[in-house]
């Protein structure tokens, strides 16, 4: 849904739809189950393009990298992205097990889980990450195997940048992604209807218990994001021998824009300006790490997906073991690599995470009502941690200007737009 003056945003419609669904569910009870089919249609439409969406987004992101130019710097950056996002995911898993946001909800057995959670020997699970037939993986919706293939496809296209045939394929993928993204936007326009139907049906069955689960979900997410943010600030400050208070103060513009816009894309120019003109990160590092981080480094989204997966599992009474929790942490990380700049993109990423872990997609509707609130804290962590990773890379490359960092005034320079 395109933003325009005077038009209500999609996120607002989703909040309204969730509120109306809760009210109607409480008023009319189990009879609201009769409209659940509308929500089921919406969930099927969300699943419809997931395979192409994930494959296209990851292939384009990896394929657009210039391996010859970024070399060691790019490898170091991506390694930090993966390690820190994986850490954030497991923070979400641990907090979910402590706070237990979905525990105590009764009356939802009718929507019980019928899928299959990944289980078995960890080494066998690792082997199953890799596809033996990508067409079979696509037909069965094996998202994890599709991600692995997409990474290899993106790497191959990146290495063949001088090959005209490879560039033609890459151009086709980029154009195809535009079409798939448009399909997602069309489907998301029906999100308020689907969310209303699913929330009304769930609330009619579970009553006010669902509201308690949503509140605890937000608490777990907020605590997780704040914990990871403070840990990252502490790590960066210790590694670079920087004043943590000054570091946070230098990030106040980025923090304000992230909170008020809940958009990583809108925050990017401000991130780069804070990185270069206020903290002292070199242009070479800042202009590689920050734009790349917008697509490949989403700590807040990783925590959101991890907490959402365990909340939904608890909500529907799905028993999980240690291996399942490990898989949720890993898959929450992988799901963020297909980070989508579309309205309701976090919900689509959640759907990808649920598909990867075998959890019921009805969970998307449960989370939709509070996604705008979740987006505030999620975006804050996403964008601030991009800058912090840039600082780590700059320190490791001896490209942090400490005079700028220690200065109370930003030097006169061209805006890092």
TrEMBL record:
Q: Which UniProt keywords apply?
A: Cell membrane, Membrane, Transmembrane, Transmembrane helix, Transport
Q: Name one GO cellular component term.
A: plasma membrane
Span-the-membrane segments of this chain are 12-29, 41-65, 77-99, 143-162, 183-205, 217-239, 300-318, 325-352
Q: Name one Pfam family in it.
A: SDF
Instruction: Cite the InterPro entries for this sequence.
Output: Na-dicarboxylate_symporter (IPR001991), Na:dicarbo_symporter_sf (IPR036458)
Q: What is its main location?
A: membrane
Localization (cell): Cell membrane
Coiled-coil residue spans: none
Membrane topology qualifier: Multi-pass membrane protein
Q: Which GO terms describe its molecular function?
A: symporter activity
> Which protein, by its recorded name, is this?
Sodium:dicarboxylate symporter
What organism does the UniProt record list as the source?
A: Youngiibacter fragilis 232.1
